[in-house]
Description:
Blueprint: H1 2-29, H2 31-39, H3 43-58, H4 74-94, H5 101-115
Helix pairs in contact: 1-5, 3-4
Amino acid sequence: METKTSFWKMFCYAFEQWKLKLHFGRCLVFLSFYLSMLKGKGAPSFRTRLLEMLIEEGENDKDITKGKNSNLNKDIVVQFFGMAYVGVVEWWILNGMPYPTQVMAEQVGVLLERNL
């Protein structure tokens, strides 16, 4: 039973890493769009839409209110991690992408995994 659980955890982690790489890669492909949206007057609206998209994509991925988060409200947890992710993406883009997409995906993945 332990082997199946370990395999499943590794598979889930690999899948999450793939999704994070996809998100950061999307930012890279559409860099000029992201830059114009984050620097322009529409930045607050763009952040809100990006957050909504992330929440919609990730809300059903796994139950984030189990384990160490069992006493937390799902809406608050989703907003917290969504805003953290949007903030990291915004920082990364506006600071000239100081780290490759692979590094960003790995580091953000570790932070999410530690806290979920």
